[in-house]
Amino acid sequence: MTTTVPDTFLQLRSEVTADGSELRLSLARVPTPKPGDGEVLVRVRATPINPSDLGLLVGPADLEAAKVSGSGEAAVLSAPIPPSLRRAVAARAGAALPVGNEGAGEVVAAGASAAAQALLGRTVAILGGEMYAEYRCVRAADALLLPEGTDPRDGASCFVNPLTALGMVETMKLEGHSGLVHTAAASNLGQMLNRICLEDGVPLVNIVRSPAQAKILKDQGAKIVCDSSQPDFMESLVAALTETGATLGFDATGGGKLAGQILTGMEVAANARSPGGFSRYGSTTHKQVYIYGGLDTGPTELNRAFGMAWGLGGWLLTPFLIRIGKEAADRLRARVVAGLKTTFASGYTTEVSLTDLLTPEAVRACNRKATGEKFLVRP
Amino acid sequence: MTTTVPDTFLQLRSEVTADGSELRLSLARVPTPKPGDGEVLVRVRATPINPSDLGLLVGPADLEAAKVSGSGEAAVLSAPIPPSLRRAVAARAGAALPVGNEGAGEVVAAGASAAAQALLGRTVAILGGEMYAEYRCVRAADALLLPEGTDPRDGASCFVNPLTALGMVETMKLEGHSGLVHTAAASNLGQMLNRICLEDGVPLVNIVRSPAQAKILKDQGAKIVCDSSQPDFMESLVAALTETGATLGFDATGGGKLAGQILTGMEVAANARSPGGFSRYGSTTHKQVYIYGGLDTGPTELNRAFGMAWGLGGWLLTPFLIRIGKEAADRLRARVVAGLKTTFASGYTTEVSLTDLLTPEAVRACNRKATGEKFLVRP
């Protein structure tokens, strides 16, 4: 070890009580692990709160009723879980789980292997949970080496958003589609996807929820933006789908009617593009929407006015990366590192420490899921 | 030609008016075609009204407001289409379409080819639409020869229900599942699927909507029946899914919460079968439900309490048969013919002529989709 590392460090934990009635956030003081041969210990400097962290962080708790006991390191934030939602968290009840999908920081200790030693003193991006903590020990092979001089803030979001956005384009190619639809399109991820699609010449229909969000994307060169807050939303969506022929959608909202509206729009567009020959079962064009987030935790409602050639499903980054294999995944990672300050740049509106996070105001703000707001934790 | 065939015949037509406001059922008198070389002309004797015929037959029309003008061959039944549902039928507006997926009857004329000539005078089952008619000309290769002496009534439903039921089991094998869930399980198709699964040793969870339906299936040896009208439905479903490990469902209802309840039950069962290790994204077990019917035309509602490894989609017989190829499809057809009076027997509660069908009472009864009721048209 070349740097003095404390014996213990702070790690944020999220616990659903054994009876499922309450969620508790607290800081645990845990022993600092000594890296094994092929491992490195990273001093976590910057770790984002992504929408995909929120399920584990706050789950279905009612944060409007959150309260805090204790203070500083000993603070405990608690919030009730509505009875109807307890079944969904039964499997994690009673366990205090670490949180935080990804982050970046310096390698302060390394195992004996050459791969681990090569990272000592360098800034790396890491993925794998437990990032809302002062330290995180990972396999050297899983650390993404960032160029010398990279600010950990710039490397904090190397994986989830960039690889998800790239994964959407790769999925489009793998499954034989030729254009994409994306919801919550003004998000950090959405802006990234827009930049990728502009670079790669992929037709992209951006769906946003307000004129302000539409402006964000148009200012960034987005070619097609449909605003679901407008009365002519369905007409503009059908026109966009007819123009692009996009038959694959990625929906970050999950709840509500949006996924079904996209499928309906695709069906109308498919019939418009292949006129004549009514089929009682709808078009033969396969229309697919993947739900990859749950910004709207309400039920998904499908009117099924889109024939029989359709699919809806969950989409998750890790199974996708396994599906494409290590070589293809490494190619995507290299593209991210090369575009860290351009195509894959993230913006943060608020920076918080671990203790800052344990307040009702902070968790409510994180959970608000408003496009444009994004938290960065600086442990 | 060896039989006297009239120059014209009656064919039922379903038309959505050009403005989408009204559905009209009528009988057209059309010229009898002369079979081409490889074709045969079938005198249709029996053709069922399957749930899959109803979309084309009556679409989203409000049959409570149906009325009839004219009488006999000249009768026209008309019913309004609610404005909110007109988009779904826009593609067929203005066309008077023939209806009826399948049927059986005698070959009364045949083209010059040996295959066509071999069928002359024989009873065949046929698929391909336009069956609610006195005659239907089809390719000889598409006619399924029935054993000598088969009553057309017994051969009327050779395709849709039998091949759909067999297709469910084949899809299960193709997609790597090891058990099935089926809704509306006391239907003709459901009883058939139950017999197939008993024969083949496939674990099957039958979901029904009443104690009377549960009794129908249990009397036929069904091992697992879950009744969605009972207060302990979810508990019994989870227990059944845990016991069978079934991860593929076929849902005939489409609307409502049932598809989501099945996915939720599969998720709870997957976690129960692989205890330990909570994952924020749910189990890694892929859970799939295919909607193959629309008995409930209301929206599909998913609470998404089933992690991220799931899919929902449409399932249709014809694309499935194309997917498995001719050889495999012929194997399934041969199994149907061999079991026409046993495994694949259908029951009908009402027989109607073509003119009988053009009354508000008859179309409403056909559209009621009550398990146990089934109409057979005798043109």
TrEMBL record, chains A, B:
Q: Which CDD domains match?
A: ETR_like_1
Any GO MF annotation of the entry: oxidoreductase activity, acting on NAD(P)H
Q: Which InterPro entries match?
A: ER (IPR020843), GroES-like_sf (IPR011032), NAD(P)-bd_dom_sf (IPR036291)
- Domain named Enoyl reductase (ER) is located at 20-377
Q: Does the keyword Secreted apply?
A: no
Q: Which UniProt keywords apply?
A: NADP, Oxidoreductase
PANTHER family in the record: QUINONE OXIDOREDUCTASE PIG3, QUINONE OXIDOREDUCTASE PIG3-RELATED
Q: What is this protein called?
A: NADH oxidase
Organism, as annotated: Phenylobacterium parvum
